[in-house]
Amino acid sequence: MKISTALILVALKFTTATPAPLERRATVQGFDISHYQPTVNFQGAYNSGARFVIIKATEGTTYIDPSFSSHYTGATNAGLIRGGYHFAHPDTSTGAAQATYFLAHGGGWSGDGITLPGMLDIEYNPNGATCYGLSTSAMVAWIQSFVNTYHTKTTRYPMIYSTNDWWSTCTGNSAAFDTTCPLVLARYGSTVGTIPGGWPYQTIWQNADTYTYGGDSDIFNGALSSLQKLASG
């Protein structure tokens, strides 16, 4: 079969063309803060592209973050989607008791489109045994108690913040929450690393322990429209 010169030129054009670049998945910058950041430039963060912030509200059943109220107001005034988080102490009281305390002191959710569901910060014990003296099954039961109470009172499942190492060690890498609670995964580096617990992906990645405008850097895994859906329910 004789192949024409024109056909050869067309074939060469397609085989030597530069491949199309891979599509980059949309993400949204955010950050998280506590009283350790008493001064936060919320407007600067918003102007730089950040669209959400997660603010420490409570610990256990006895501690309210003294900066929560001012941080929450500042975030709202800057136009940021915002929500509260609770630092868990599974060795001091039940999950249900701590969820109730969190909800009473800033951790609630409303369908106003700018409030994230609350976040349970469950990680290394700062004052003792890594897993707070609980077995893996007892830890999963504690988290379930917190999650169920929060969901019953708000109709929303809380986000869960942890690391791959802590979750694997202290819950036995439980997959009990992978279809209900959005994962906020802490891993400082250039990639998100291993996703624990059966979650197919992280909803938010805490990728650095510093952020220009205050606190830690967080990356939402999706477009702004998806972040808004998370807030609105």
TrEMBL record:
Where does the record locate the signal sequence feature? Answer: 1-19
Instruction: Write down the chemical reaction(s) this protein catalyses.
Output: Hydrolysis of (1->4)-beta-linkages between N-acetylmuramic acid and N-acetyl-D-glucosamine residues in a peptidoglycan and between N-acetyl-D-glucosamine residues in chitodextrins
Q: Which Pfam families match?
A: Glyco_hydro_25
> What residue ranges are annotated as transmembrane?
none
Its EC top class is hydrolase
Give the E.C. number(s).
3.2.1.17
Protein origin, superkingdom: Eukaryota
Keyword line: Glycosidase, Hydrolase, Signal
In the record, the note on similarity to other proteins reads:
Belongs to the glycosyl hydrolase 25 family.
Q: What is this protein called?
A: Lysozyme
Q: Could you tell me which species this protein originates from?
A: Lepraria finkii
Output the lineage of the source organism: Eukaryota, Fungi, Dikarya, Ascomycota, Pezizomycotina
